[in-house]
Every structure is written in C-alpha cells, then in structure tokens.
C-alpha cells in the first residue's frame, strides 16, 4: 500500500510540474494571437510567476494545517480549474479571461 501511494504521488508531482513549463513554452505563442498588442503577449506567463510566488506561503500554511496529501490535492484542483479557464479563454478568443 505504501509503495502504491509513493508511485501515485510521484506521478502526480511529475504531471503537475509540466504545467509551468507548458505555460512558458506556449504562453507567448498563444499570447501573440490573443493579445491586443504584442507587448502584452507574455503577460500571462509573467502573471503565472507572480501568482506562484504569492501562493507559496499560503500553500505551505494550508499543508501544515491539513497535511501534504490534502494540500497537494487542493492545489491540483485549483490548477485544473485554472487550466479549464484557460481553455475557455482560448475557445472564446478572450485575452482578459
């Protein structure tokens, strides 16, 4: 049972680590097509870095209070919601969204 949990957590961590690199890779490319001006094309990528920095301490406090597994699950759910919002924004062609 313990090995199963370690494998699941390892796979979950690996998949969640793909998000920032994907945003860094595609953020500017997609931003150029959606942004009202080329100067704003990398704004989503920049905001991701700022959001990550701002959320570090609250995430650590949440994990201390609820445990690492529950904290990781909550963080993953928030990331999934953000990805769904990004998909909706791409479908609608909305840069502000």
Structural class: mainly alpha
Extract low-pLDDT stretches.
none
Mass-distribution shape: elongated
- Mean pLDDT figure: 87
Distance between the termini: 42 Å
Helical element count? 3
Largest sheet descriptor: none
- In sequence order, what are the helices and strands, one letter per element? HHH
Share of residues in helices: over 70%
Q: How large is the radius of gyration?
A: 16 Å
- Strand tally: 0
- Share of residues in strands: under 5%
Protein model, in words:
- This protein has 97 residues and is mostly helical.
- Helices cover 85% and strands 0% of the residues.
- The N and C termini lie far apart (42 Å).
Summarize the structure.
The chain is mainly α and 97 residues long. The protein contains three helices and no strands.
Provide the fold topology.
Blueprint: H1 2-34, H2 43-66, H3 68-92
Q: What labels describe this entry?
A:
97 residues; mainly alpha; 3 helices
């Amino acid at each position: 049972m313990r090995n199963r949990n370690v494998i699941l957590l390892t796979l979950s961590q690996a998949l969640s680590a793909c998000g920032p690199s994907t945003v860094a890779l595609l953020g500017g490319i997609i931003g150029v097509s959606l942004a009202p001006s080329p100067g704003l094309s990398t704004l989503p990528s920049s905001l991701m870095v700022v959001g990550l920095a701002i959320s570090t301490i609250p995430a650590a406090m949440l994990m201390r209070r609820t445990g690492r597994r529950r904290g990781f699950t909550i963080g993953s759910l928030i990331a999934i919601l953000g990805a769904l919002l990004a998909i909706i924004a791409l479908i609608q062609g909305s840069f502000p969204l």
